[in-house]
Amino acid sequence: TMKNPVPQAASLLLEKLMLLVHIRAVPAGSGGKTPPPASGYYDTSCFKRGDLLEVPRTLFIHFGIYLGENRVAHLMPDILPSITGDRRQIQQMVTNKRLILGVIARTASVRVDTVEDFAYGGTIVVNHMDRLFEDRVLGSEEVARRAEKLVGTTAYSLLWNNCEHFVTYCRYGAAVSFQTDKFCETVKMIIRDQRSVLASVLVGLASIVCLGLAPSTTLATIFIPFFLWMAG
C-alpha cells in the first residue's frame, strides 16, 4: 500500500521551516572562524552530574546533560559521522555547514563537549524544565548514564528527534519537545485564521513552483509556507 503523500509533505515542509529558523539561532561564530570562550569562562561549580542545561538562542533553545568535569552531552545534527569514522574530525566543533547537511541527511550525533563549546557564550539555565515534570525527575547518576550510553551517531529530526527529545528522555524518561509542539501549534493557528487563507494560498503556490513539488503535495503545501512569509 502506498503511503499518503500529504502528511509526508507537510512534515517535510515543517522541518524545512524549522531548519531556517534554527540556522538563524546558531551563533555567528559556529562557522569555525571565531573560537568559543576560553576554558573557565563559566563557573561549573554550581553544576551537578545529571543536570539539564539550557542555552537560549534567538528563537530556539539548545539542551544538554552535564556529565561532570566540565563535560556536556548534547545531540547535534552533523553529517560528518555518516561519511567518516575519524574521531578527531568528528570531535571538532560542528560548523554551520556540517549542521545543515546533517539536518538534510537526518543524521546527528550525541557528542560530549566542554561547557564552553556547548554554550558558546550563551547564558546557561540549569534544570529549568523540572517544574514541568514534578516528581518524574530521575536520579542524577541514572540521568548521566543514560546520556553517556547514547553517545554516538543517531538519526535526527527537527520535529521528532532533536536535542530536547534527548535531554527529556535522559532526565525524565519521556522524549518530548515543547518547543516543537509550540511551533506546530503556531502553524495550526495560522491555518485556522481565515484572514490569512488568501496569502497562504499565494505563498503556497509560489513555493510549489520554486521547490518543484509534485501536484499530489499541493494540499499539504498550500498553507504551511505562509508561516515562513510571516516570520521572514
Automatic annotation (TrEMBL):
Any one Gene Ontology BP term: visual perception
Subcellular location, record wording: Cytoplasm, Perinuclear region; Endoplasmic reticulum membrane; Late endosome; Rough endoplasmic reticulum
Domain LRAT: 52-179
Membrane topology: Single-pass membrane protein
Its EC number(s): 2.3.1.135
Signal sequence residues: 1-28
Gene Ontology cellular component annotations, sorted alphabetically: endoplasmic reticulum membrane; late endosome; perinuclear region of cytoplasm; rough endoplasmic reticulum
Recorded superkingdom: Eukaryota
PROSITE patterns: LRAT
Gene3D superfamilies found in the cross-reference section: endopeptidase domain like (from Nostoc punctiforme)
Catalytic activity annotation: all-trans-retinol--[retinol-binding protein] + a 1,2-diacyl-sn-glycero-3-phosphocholine = apo--[retinol-binding protein] + an all-trans-retinyl ester + a 2-acyl-sn-glycero-3-phosphocholine; 1,2-diheptanoyl-sn-glycero-3-phosphocholine + all-trans-retinol--[retinol-binding protein] = all-trans-retinyl heptanoate + 2-heptanoyl-sn-glycero-3-phosphocholine + apo--[retinol-binding protein]; 1,2-dihexadecanoyl-sn-glycero-3-phosphocholine + all-trans-retinol = all-trans-retinyl hexadecanoate + 2-hexadecanoyl-sn-glycero-3-phosphocholine; 1,2-didodecanoyl-sn-glycero-3-phosphocholine + all-trans-retinol--[retinol-binding protein] = 2-dodecanoyl-sn-glycero-3-phosphocholine + all-trans-retinyl dodecanoate + apo--[retinol-binding protein]
Keyword entries, A-Z: Acyltransferase, Cytoplasm, Endoplasmic reticulum, Endosome, Lipid metabolism, Membrane, Sensory transduction, Signal, Transferase, Transmembrane, Transmembrane helix, Vision
Summary of the function given for this chain in its UniProt record: Transfers the acyl group from the sn-1 position of phosphatidylcholine to all-trans retinol, producing all-trans retinyl esters. Retinyl esters are storage forms of vitamin A. LRAT plays a critical role in vision. It provides the all-trans retinyl ester substrates for the isomerohydrolase which processes the esters into 11-cis-retinol in the retinal pigment epithelium; due to a membrane-associated alcohol dehydrogenase, 11 cis-retinol is oxidized and converted into 11-cis-retinaldehyde which is the chromophore for rhodopsin and the cone photopigments.
Protein name: Lecithin retinol acyltransferase
Species of origin: Grantiella picta
The gene coding this protein: Lrat
